[in-house]
Amino acid sequence: MPNDVPDSYWKALMHFAQQVGAEDEVNRSPARLMNPEDQQWLQEAMSQLIKDTDPVLRMKKELEKLSKIDFYSPTEEEIDRGVEALSMIEELACDVDVACDFFKVGGLRMLAPLIASPAAPFRTQAAAVVGQLCQNNPDAQTQILDAKMLPLLLESVVNDADGEVKAKALYGVSCLVRGNERGSAEFRGLNGFDYLVRAVQCDPDNQRLVTKSAFLTAQLARQEENKAGIADHLAALLLLLPSDHQGSEHVIDALAEILTHPSDLTSTDQLALINFLEERIKSTDLHEDERRPVEKLLKILNADHE
C-alpha cells in the first residue's frame, strides 16, 4: 500500500523507539529488519494514527461532515451532527496555525450559510467558530473581513431571535475588530456602536449580552482615534443600564477618559446622565477607583448647569 505517512511521523516514531530501547536494559534485543506482514501492520497503524490525530486531517473530516448537511432545512439528526462537527472545528482552531488551515481547506465558504441557517444551534456554533478563528489571528481576521462577515454578525447581535446566538455573534464581532485597524474602521463605517446600543435596548434581560456589549463598547471607544460622537454612544448605552450594573463601570471609565466638555455630548440628555451618575455615587459599595471617574464626569457636566 502507498506510504501516506509523512517523514516527520516516522522520525518521531524512530526517536521514541530509540529512547525506549536505550532505557530498557532487560528486554533489549538486536536490531533486525521487519517482515512484510509487520511492515504492513505498522504502515496501517501509523496511517490510522494520523487520521485520528493530525489536526488538518481532522479539520477536513469535520468539514466533509458539514458539506453533507442541508443548512437551510436540516433534520434534528443533521443539527446534532453539524453542531458536533462545528464544536470540534472550534476546538481545533485554538491553535493559530490550524485556524489558518481552516481557510486553506475551504472552510470559509460554509460560515455565511451557517450563520443564515434557520437552525439556531448552527448560528450559535458558527459564530463561536468565527470568534475562535479570529482571536489574536490577523490573517484569519483579514479573510473573515474579506468575506463580509462583520455585517452579518452585527445584524445577528441585534436582530436574532435567539439570545445565545446574539451573545456568540457579539463574541465574533469582538474577536474580529479589537486591536485590528481595518476591523475597527469597518465597524465604525457600519455604525457598529449603534448596533451595540440597540442590542442592549432590544434585549435588556440578556445579562451576558448586556455586560459584553458594555465592555466591548468601552474597549472600542478607547481605541478610536476619531472621538467624534463616541461620547454620545457611551452615554446612550450607560443610560440603558441600571446604575449598579457591573457593565456600567467599564462605560463610565471610558466616558471619563473621553469627555472633556459637555459640548462633546450632542445628542444626550445631560440631566438624565447627571441623575444616573448621582444615583451611582450614592452606592456605599463603590471603591475609590470606581468613585473617581464618576466624580470627574459630574464635575464636567455640572459646570455647564451651574
From TrEMBL:
Name of protein: Hsp70-binding protein 1
Gene Ontology molecular function terms on file: adenyl-nucleotide exchange factor activity
Gene3D superfamilies: Leucine-rich Repeat Variant (1.25.10.10)
Secretion signal span: none
GO cellular component, one term: endoplasmic reticulum
Source organism superkingdom: Eukaryota
